[in-house]
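re: ur question from yesterday

yeah so i grabbed the chain u mentioned. its 153 aa long if i counted rite. heres the sequnce exactly as i have it in my notes:
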Amino acid sequence: MKHRQKTTKTKAAIAKVLTLPDLYDMYDECNFRFFGGTLPCPQLDFMHKKDPVGSFTCDYYNDVILSACIMISDRYKYTDAQLRTLMTHEMIHYFLYYNNVNPTWSHGKEFRTIAKYMNVVYGLNIDKYTDTSNMEMIQKESFFSRLFSKRKA
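ran it thru and got these structure tokens back, copy pasting raw so excuse formatting
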């Protein structure tokens, strides 16, 4: 009897245009997988610029976070791996603020220690800045291009 050898085809990383539910799904995945589900869900939204690709902001008073927001650029298509790395990067900032661990340093020693750990243990690629050279940019039609294209018609 002949046995077939199992072949595993690797699924190509497909970059896609993100939706708001994609951000919330990835946040939940990263929160449970990397932070043990300890972080409350902040506001998640898109920012309409190329740089930076991600951003974390929060308002706090007397070491209590009043509001928190993670924003991801809508100018690129993202693979799951790219979004996971970017979301985790922003969530490290959130984790540091949430736990009141030297929150004034954006990419200080604490941030770099956690990022290095996650890169080694989970195979992420967290760095201070996101390299967008291998990311597909979404061409957005500007207000002016829409305005002038209508005038020609």
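noticed a couple things. The helical segments are 20-35, 80-98, 109-122, 143-152. also The first strand starts at residue 43 and ends at 47.
anyway ttyl
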